[in-house]
Specification:
The chain has 441 residues and is of the alpha/beta class. 37% of the residues lie in helices and 21% in strands. The two termini are 44 Å apart. The structure holds aspartic acid.
Length: 441
């Protein structure tokens, strides 16, 4: 049995719903369908989820949200009518409208998925199952066993199901919302609960590209990638698959196929336990801009556990989230994302210098991190040197290189302004060493 999740662009309008139906009916093992809220399309510049978030902002500010609700209603009705569905979705819309002033944020913002689910279930003739009835979270973590126990009695024999993504219920029976892009997680959880043999993630791209296609023109598609490699790429900013969606499928070794609703025939990327890349090959590149690097230096710093503990305590006081903290014998580099940096850096530097009598505390901002990911990196530490040398030869100054023992990624810190060039350069360097390229050379 396959679980198939359709993202926002796949359910953006009636025409997209029709494509989804074709995909579902072409394979009878696609039995469990997860849907996002209607997303953007050529004629719809705003995602339904963002309309709901706007309604929340307006209600909080005591402003009028009628026009925004009307926009939402029109979108939902146009899908229903475009599909010629005989479905009383007006009563669901009315029930939502009546609760706007009193409901929780999670309830309100999850309604896009709820409405997509209702429409899709009616359109496919599948059973609608509200995840609030079975997908149980406790302290923010899903309880898979309890969720399975709740779901099984709801299933009818020989009937496909449609489950809205992005939410479940908490221990008090209230709606629990997942992070943005959370329908990927819902699909992965459902695949785990139902012991699916494949989790299909249908999007608007034919698989995952080796590098951001907005930066690298015609970036090659990744045919096969391991769960761990994809996790690293997602954590480093690759946007195709929500990072928290990997664990539930990895746990059961359920393969994931990332596919394109608009071009199903093109195939996509398969995510499994091991990648098929050859030795030396990097499977993908991803990165993030806007980091600050705080370097603290003192001879023998890492011998002094008390200094390291004191640094952590000071950072906690400044409410700083450190993303990476690579260190050498005399230096620790603290990498902080600009958006997590709510504190006064000058003050932090002063406190670090005063309280720890550090020889040097330097701050560098506008740093971008670019990661090259490969399971083979553990065995190929020289790869990092080769890529750094290639950047150097193009006059791209590398401020730092991070690669720990068991890492399957190497991180390069460069200036924000060199971000795109760094990705292009690493990409072309990797490509020049790929076996197919070598054969052509
Ligand atoms: N609709 C939600 C979002 O826009 C969740 C999802 O699409 O997965 O983030």
């Amino acid at each position: 049995m396959k679980v198939a999740k359709f993202g926002g662009s796949s359910v953006a309008n009636a025409a997209q719903f029709k494509k989804v139906k074709q995909i579902i009916t072409s394979d009878s093992s696609r039995k469990a369908i997860v849907v996002s809220a209607a997303g953007k399309s050529a004629d719809q510049p705003v995602k339904v989820t963002d309309l709901l978030i706007r309604i929340n902002r307006l209600r909080r500010a005591g402003e009028n949200y009628l026009a925004t609700f009307d926009q939402l209603k029109k979108r939902i009705l146009s899908i229903r009518d475009g599909l010629k569905l005989n479905l009383d979705i007006e009563s669901d819309l009315m029930a939502i409208f009546n609760r706007i002033d009193s409901c929780s944020y999670d309830y309100l913002v999850s309604r896009g998925e709820f409405l997509s689910g209702k429409l899709m279930a009616a359109y496919l003739g599948f059973q609608f199952i509200d995840p609030a009835q079975f997908l149980l979270f406790e302290n923010g973590r899903v309880d898979l066993e309890k969720s399975r126990e709740q779901l099984m009695p709801l299933l009818k024999a020989n009937q496909g199901i449609v489950v809205p993504g992005f939410y479940g219920a908490d221990e008090f029976g209230m709606i629990h919302l997942m992070p943005r892009g959370g329908s990927d997680i819902s699909g992965a959880l459902l695949a785990n609960i139902l012991d699916a043999n494949l989790y299909e993630n249908w999007t608007d791209v034919s698989g995952i590209k080796m590098a951001d296609p907005n930066i690298v023109n015609h970036s090659k598609k990744i045919d096969r990638i391991s769960y761990d490699e994809l996790h690293e790429l997602s954590l480093m900013g690759a946007k195709v698959f929500q990072e928290d969606a990997i664990l539930p499928v990895k746990q059961k070794g359920i393969p994931v196929a990332v596919l394109n609703t608009n071009r199903p025939q093109e195939g996509g990327t398969l995510v499994v336990n091991s990648s098929s890349t050859e030795k030396h090959e990097v499977v993908g590149i991803a990165g993030k801009r806007d980091f600050v690097v705080i370097s603290v230096k003192k001879p023998g710093l890492n011998q002094h556990q008390d200094s390291v503990a004191k640094i952590s305590a000071i950072l906690r006081k400044f409410d700083l989230n450190v993303d990476f903290a690579p260190f050498g014998p005399d230096v620790i580099d603290l990498l902080v994302s600009e958006k997590d940096k709510h504190c006064d850096l000058k003050k932090l530097v002063k406190v670090l210098k005063e309280q720890l009598s550090f020889q040097e505390v330097n701050v560098q901002d506008n740093i971008a991190l670019v990661a090259a990911v490969s399971s083979h990196l553990r065995m190929q530490p020289a790869l990092a040197c080769r890529l750094a040398a290639a950047l150097d030869s193009k006059d791209i100054p590398v401020h730092l290189v991070i690669q720990k023992d068991q890492d399957i990624k190497v991180l390069f810190g460069v200036s924000n302004s060199e971000y795109a060039e760094t990705i292009k350069n690493i990409y072309s360097n990797i490509l020049s060493l790929m076996p197919s390229k070598r054969a052509l050379a």
